[in-house]
Amino acid sequence: MEKQPQGTDLVKLSNATLNELPEAVLRPSYNRAKLKPGIVHIGLGNFHRAHQAWYLHRLMQRGAALDWAIIGAGVRPYDAIMRDKLVAQDCLTTLIELDPSSSFAEVVGSMIDYLPIEQGNERLIERMAHPDIRIVSMTVTEGGYFIDPANKGFDPTHPDIVHDSRKPDQPKTAFGAVVAALRLRRENGSGPFTCLCCDNLQGNGDVLRQTVVSLARMSDPELADWIDLNCTFPNSMVDCIVPATGPNELALVHQLGIDDQAPVTHENFRQWVIEDNFCAGRPDLDDVGVTFTDDVHGYEAMKIRILNGGHQVISVPGEVLSVQTIADCMKHDLIGRLFTKVATEEIAPSVKPVLGTTPKDYVALIHGRFSNPQIVDTTRRVAFDGSSRHAGFLIPSIRDGLTNGTSIKGLALIEAAWARMCQGTREDGSTIEPNDPFWDELRTKANQARENPVTWLEMRQIYGDLADQPQFSDSFTKWLNVIWDEGLEKAMATYLAQ
C-alpha cells in the first residue's frame, strides 16, 4: 500500500474531494447523486461496510443496481457516534484490504444516507414504510434477537419487547420498528419487503422471522399473519474478518493521505451465501460473487462451527495468557496447534462438505486467514459475548461429538479455559475487563467453579443438560483443575500430547 510523503495535507473524505484522492485509491466511478435507495440497513458497523455495502458498490461500479443504494440506521444511542462520523463525509468509507502479499484501498459509495437516532424511531419507521425500500437488512449481533436461552424460542418477557408490544408506534427495538413500518405498508398498499439478517446465526432468516412475527403477534395478530405470509426472510451466511477501528486503522488511512473518521480494514476474503427468496426483488448480487443456493445451512454450519467456533478456541486461551491479537495467538506454539487439533479432530467430523470445499480444506483456509499478521484483530474483540458465542458456535459441536462418539476433550478444555477467563484475571495477574452482557453472573459462577467445577456447567441457559453428561463434565472438571493448579499452558500441552 503506497504511503503519502511526510507533510502532505490529508484530503478530507467527501463527495467533493473524490477526485483529489491519491491515484492509487480506487473510488466510485458512478454518479452518487443519481443513486436511489432500495435498502435500509440497521446496525451499521464495520462488518456491514466491508461486506454488504462492498458487494453493492461493486455492482454500482458496473453501472448496475443504481436504485439499490443503502440508507443506514440505528436504534441505540451509541449509533449516533457513527452516524455523525459518516454523515460528515457523505457516508463514504475507505476500505483497506490487508494481505501479507499485497494491500490496497478503495472508497465505497453505496450508502447515501444515515437516519438520525431518535426515541421512538419515527423517521426510521417512515423511511422503511416508503415503497422504494424493498429490503431491510440488519446486523445487530448474535445475541440481539431476543431468544429465550432455555428453549431457543422468542422471549416475550424482555423489557424492550414488552415496551414495543404495548407502544407499537414508539418502538425501542429494530424489530419493533420493522413491525411498525410493515403495518404502515399494509395500510397504504406498499406491500411487503424482504427482511435480511446478516448476523452469525444458524438459520438466521428463520430466527429473524421468529422475532418479527412473534413481536407483531403480541400487539396485532392479523398483522403478524400478514407479515408471515407475505414477507420473506432468506437465510444467509456472511464471512469476512473485519477488525474494529482504532488508532492503528486511523494511522493506516492517514498514511494514504485521507482524512476518514471511520475507515475499515479487512482481509482478502469475502463470502456471502443467500437463499434466493426476495419478495420485492433484489440486486444482481450473483454477478459480483454472491452465492445463491438452497443449501445455505451447509455453508453456514461449516463457517459457524470452524471459523466462529475456531475463533473461540484461540481467543479464550489468548485472553488468559495475555496474547493481544488473533494472529499472535496463531503464532503461539500451543494455541496455534490447539486450533488445528480441535478443529480437525473434534469440529470437522460433524461438518458436511459443501460444493467445492471439504471440512479439512476449510480448516486449512481458516488457519491461513487467522494467521494473517496484517489483520490486527484483537483477542478481546473476538472473545466478546462468550455467553452467546459458546452457546451458538461450540456447544453444538460438543453435542455432536457426544452423539457420534468423536472426541470432545479439546472442546471441554476450551470451556474450562473460558471459565478461567471469566474469573476476571489473566495468568499474569492483570484484570480482564467486563467482556460479556452477563459478565457479573459469569464471574460469580467462575469463582464458584474454582472449588466446584460443575457449578459452571449448571448455567443451563448455555449448556443445557451437558452437566449431566459424564463424558463431558468429567473432562471439563479435569481440565479446569489442571488450569488452576498448573496453568493453562500445561493443560494445553497435555491435550496436544494425547
Keywords for this structure?
498 residues, alpha/beta, Rossmann fold, N-(1-d-carboxylethyl)-l-norvaline Dehydrogenase, domain 2, 2 domains, five-stranded parallel beta sheet, three-stranded mixed beta sheet, 21 helices, 13 strands, 10% strand, Mannitol dehydrogenase family protein, EC 1.1.1.-, 6PGD_dom2, oxidoreductase, Mannitol_DH_N
Outline:
46% of the residues lie in helices and 10% in strands. The chain is α/β, with parallel strands linked by helices and 498 residues long.
- The percent of residues in helical segments reads 40-55%
Rg from alpha-carbon coordinates: 23 Å
Beta-strand fraction estimate: 5-15%
Secondary structure category: alpha/beta
Determine the CATH topology of the largest domain. Answer: Rossmann fold
Strand order, sheet with most strands: 6-3-2-7-8
Number of helices: 21
CATH class label of the largest domain: Alpha Beta
- β-strand number: 13
**What do we call the CATH homologous superfamily of the largest domain?**
NAD(P)-binding Rossmann-like Domain
Question: The biggest beta sheet, please?
Answer: 5 strands, parallel
What is the name of the CATH architecture of the largest domain? 3-Layer(aba) Sandwich
Enzyme class: oxidoreductase
Organism: Aliisedimentitalea scapharcae
InterPro entries: 6-PGluconate_DH-like_C_sf, 6PGD_dom2, Mannitol_DH, Mannitol_DH/Oxidoreductase, Mannitol_DH_C, Mannitol_DH_N, NAD(P)-bd_dom_sf
EC number: 1.1.1.-
Task: Explain what this protein looks like in three dimensions.
It is globular, with a radius of gyration of 23 Å. It is an alpha/beta fold and 498 residues long. The strands form four sheets. It has a five-stranded parallel β-sheet, sandwiched between helices. A three-stranded mixed β-sheet has the order 5-4-11, sandwiched between helices. The chain folds into two domains: 284 residues, NAD(P)-binding Rossmann-like Domain (Rossmann fold, 3-Layer(aba) Sandwich); 200 residues, N-(1-d-carboxylethyl)-l-norvaline Dehydrogenase, domain 2 (Orthogonal Bundle). InterPro entries: 6-PGluconate_DH-like_C_sf, 6PGD_dom2, Mannitol_DH, Mannitol_DH/Oxidoreductase, Mannitol_DH_C, Mannitol_DH_N, NAD(P)-bd_dom_sf.
